[in-house]
Amino acid sequence: MALKGAAIVIDCYNDGFFLMSCTVNMSSINFPNIDHENLPKWQGDLAPLECIEIIEETHNVKSFRFKSQKDAWFQFLPGQHTTLFLNIDGADVMRTYTIASSPTRPHTITITSKRMTDGIVTNWMHDNLKVGDVIDALNIGGSFSVALDKPKKKVLLMSGGSGITPMLSMTRYFVDLAIDVDIVFIHNAQTPEDLIGKYELDYYAHHQLNFGLHYVCDKADATWQGASGFLDTKMLTRLVPDYLEREVYCCGPEAYMVNAKGLLRAGGFDMDYYHQESFDIESSTAQQNMAEPLEKPVVDVEYSGEIVEYNVILTETGKTISCASNSSILSAIQAQGIGVPFACSMGMCGTCRAKMTEGTVDMDAQGGLLKSHEEEGYILTCCSKPTSDVVLDL
Ligand code: FES
To answer: Ligand 1 test: best mutation among 349, 356, 394, most atoms within 8 Å of CB?
Structure first.
């Protein structure tokens, strides 16, 4: 029961001090445990997340902050993503979201999402998710992160629309760790009202050394003082005269990234220093249903070795299926009509992870598998082709 009582508060006004009395809630704050030595790491695998805060970022963008329902801290890299698993109107749906918060604040994760016309999960979250609600998440993964590279000391972050989320995570990471880096951040939005994270980025622009910030709005009225129109080489050169010397990180709708790559190439940029989040955040395959069947397995048309059929034994399902050496195990499973979790189908999100207890595979994971999980025998079925008979805990 909350204790309430009278308290005396000293207020300062125009250099004079006044005593004020008021009633305050005397119950204590319940601080979470942040002792990492005695606090487990959040492990995913449908681990429940509790929504603890919802922030309206713009007219159609919200940030949802979560903590682990069971005390735990989150280990991830700035720019990585997590996959949420929800049951909406009776259907299991998944959606992969970049984590917008920084791993330097490891006790919560924040997902910033934009309402979309056909965004089943995002729109459900915008309309229904409340503080205190609990949802499940599968894993954290991804290879789009400054922390995985050894980038130059000059970095150019480029984002379009809600593609800003990994850039927010990386910026917060740089700031929190006081990394010695020269950042220029270009963010494109349709209108000034669509700018996400503006107050925070403006703060960094004023208070951080070596932090250049440019907003570019497609459409803006006469009151807008920033750049407007389509980003082209001329505008890029004006905003970032030394862009050829920088390591570039880019995220946004496909058309935005195609344009960014094109104008960088045209300007003579060395594309070895260009990184992009190739996962299409606007039209993610992550919303596919677990049980969606395939007519036949998808084969790797560039596979050059001998094609051999192997057995894949699924111990939990109790089935044995055949999988060719030029086909992913996931697509062979789907072709049998067996429902298993998956999202990106690109080895990035970790959703299709399964423990392999026997056998060998050729796996092309794109960051969706933690090293510790790989050491424990897990594989990503979407990007693993069998090289022997295989037994999976699935
Ligand atoms: S489905 Fe995303 S890693 Fe396999």
So the answer is: 349
Surface-to-core class of residue 285, CB atoms within 10 Å of its CB (0-12 exposed, 13-18 middle, 19+ buried): middle
Domain extent listing, the chain: 36-141, 153-160+177-276, 288-392
pLDDT of 117 = 80
The separation between CA 109 and the C-alpha centre of its own chain, rounded to angstroms, equals 10
Banded pLDDT at 5 (limits 50, 70, 90): very low
Of 279, 284, 348, which is best to mutate to test ligand 1, by the most ligand atoms within 8 angstroms of its C-beta?
348
Q: Which ligand 1 atom sits closest to the C-alpha of 349?
A: 2
Spell out which residues line ligand 1, taking CB within 6 angstroms.
342-345, 347-352, 368, 380, 382
pTM: 0.76
The CATH number of 288-392 is 3.10.20.30
Q: What is the mean pLDDT of residues 341-350?
A: 75
Ligand 1 atom at minimal distance to the Cα of residue 330:
4
What would be the CATH architecture of the domain defined by 153-160+177-276?
Answer: 3-Layer(aba) Sandwich (3.40)
CATH tag, 36-141:
2.40.30.10
Grouping H, G, I as helix, E, B as strand and the rest as coil, residue 73 is: strand
Q: Is 307 helix (H, G, I), strand (E, B) or coil?
A: coil
pLDDT surpassing 90 at residue 378: yes
Give the least confident one: 25-29, 85-89, 389-393. Answer: 25-29
Residues 101, 108: contact at Cβ < 8 Å? yes
What burial class does residue 26 get, using C-beta atoms within 10 Å of its C-beta: 0-12 exposed, 13-18 middle, 19+ buried?
exposed
Mutational pocket test of ligand 1: of 345, 356, 364, 392, the residue with most ligand atoms within 8 Å of the beta carbon: 345
Residue with the smallest CA separation from ligand 1 atom 3 is 347
**Ligand 1 closest atom vs CA 366:** 3
Atom of ligand 1 nearest to the CA of 344: 2
DSSP 204-231: HHHHSTTEEEEEEESS--TT--SEES--
